[in-house]
């Protein structure tokens, strides 16, 4: 028995497809003691983690572009792509909350907001790498993490609803 | 309460718990995963929503071979284009790139899961890939009206392409029509 589970564990590294099928067969036969639980629980947890990751990614997209709009929009013709990114990410967030209302609570936690903000800052840093003129103008160099707020400057409500393009008018 | 009543109540509660977990699958997938995970960790197997969980686990495997199918479809589409619709020597360099890239991705998938290689050779899988390739070809002609008119006199439909996959698994993985051409061009007539 132990040997079989051991083999199954090795299979996880060697042949993921076969590993899934083997575990599936064991579960269907209720042979729970033979299942490679260590890896299977990890994989199941990953299903949840993936959803969490999309949540953080989408919030980061909104934050990045809200921040760009507020700080680096230099003329009326700039920012239509940013606005589109914000609106699109918000729609996807709403779809996500629709499917998984519990994510809405998690999204409002300080930890989630800060995680998303750190990701947004990374995107901003990368963006300035390609926008040398703007980097020079605002920072006199390429900005690093220290050039942006450490804590997330947006609330959950702002992420979902703030429309800087309306207030400016 | 005597034993049978207690047991009955327990069964009822169990049923309720599993029932609400099944409903949670529709209402809140994230929470559903976490709840099942908790039950599995505590080895409370009788409460797990097996119906949906087995489906989800099967999906992990399915996703892998679905990727193989979609890469095979990319290769078939472009092999077919190269063989049938390449009109000039300067055409097709992006087709070649698509073929080579998809082959590379398939090899990566086989590396992680060698059993997929056997799966990919099943007739059903080849056929599904070919059907996807035909849809891609039809869509391609929609965007290339001139080609469509020249080859079909109209926009082609599924009926204008072979029903069965014209390629074997070996051809999908190895056939390099551009080499044939080089051979043709460099072959010197035999004395």
Blueprint of the fold:
The complex is a heterodimer of chains A (169) and B (191).
Chain A: H1 2-14, H2 16-28, H3 37-72, H4 80-99, H5 102-107, H6 110-130, H7 132-139, H8 156-161, H9 164-167
Chain B: H1 3-27, H2 29-41, H3 50-85, H4 93-112, H5 115-120, H6 123-142, H7 145-152, H8 169-174, H9 177-186
Helix pairs in contact in B: 1-2, 3-4, 3-6
Bin the strand percentage of chain A.
under 5%
Question: What would you call the structural class of chain B?
Answer: mainly alpha
Instruction: Report the strand count of chain B.
Output: 0
Low-confidence stretches of chain A: none
**How does the overall form of chain B come out from the CA principal axes?**
elongated
Oligomeric category: heterodimer
Order of helices and strands of chain A, N to C? HHHHHHHHH
Quickly describe the structure.
The complex is a heterodimer of chains A (169) and B (191). Chain A is mainly α and 169 residues long. Helices cover 75% and strands 0% of the residues of chain A.
């Amino acid at each position: 028995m132990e040997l079989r589970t051991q083999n199954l564990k090795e299979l996880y590294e060697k042949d993921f497809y076969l590993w899934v099928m083997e575990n599936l067969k064991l579960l269907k036969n209720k042979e729970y003691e033979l299942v490679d639980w260590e890896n299977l629980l990890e994989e199941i947890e990953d299903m949840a983690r993936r959803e969490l990751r999309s949540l953080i990614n989408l919030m980061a997209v909104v934050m990045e572009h809200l921040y760009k709009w507020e700080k680096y929009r230099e003329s009326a013709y700039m920012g239509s792509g940013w606005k589109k990114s914000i609106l699109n990410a918000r729609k996807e967030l709403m779809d996500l909350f629709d499917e998984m209302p519990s994510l809405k609570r998690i999204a409002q936690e300080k930890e989630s907001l800060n995680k998303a903000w750190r990701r947004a800052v990374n995107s901003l840093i990368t963006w300035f790498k390609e926008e040398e003129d703007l980097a020079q103008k605002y920072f006199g160099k390429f900005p690093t993490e220290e050039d942006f707020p450490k804590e997330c400057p947006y609330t959950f409500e702002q992420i979902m609803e703030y429309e800087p393009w309306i207030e400016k008018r | 309460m005597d034993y049978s009543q207690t047991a009955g109540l327990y069964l009822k509660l169990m049923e309720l718990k599993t029932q609400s977990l099944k409903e949670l699958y529709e209402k809140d997938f994230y929470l559903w995963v976490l709840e099942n995970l908790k039950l599995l960790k505590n080895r409370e197997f009788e409460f797990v929503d097996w119906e949906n969980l087995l489906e989800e686990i099967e999906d992990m495997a399915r996703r892998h071979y679905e990727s193989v199918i979609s890469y095979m479809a990319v290769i078939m589409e472009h092999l077919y284009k190269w063989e049938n619709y390449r009109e000039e020597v300067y055409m097709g360099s992006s087709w070649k790139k698509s073929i080579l890239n998809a082959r590379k991705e398939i090899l990566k998938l086989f590396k992680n899961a060698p059993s997929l290689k056997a799966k990919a050779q099943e007739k059903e899988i080849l056929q599904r890939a070919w059907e996807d390739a035909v849809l891609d070809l039809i869509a391609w002609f929609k965007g290339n009206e001139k080609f469509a008119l020249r080859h079909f006199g109209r926009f082609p439909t599924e009926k204008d392409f072979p029903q069965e996959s014209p390629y074997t698994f070996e051809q999908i993985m190895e056939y390099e029509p551009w080499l044939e051409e080089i051979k043709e061009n460099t072959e010197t007539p035999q004395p």
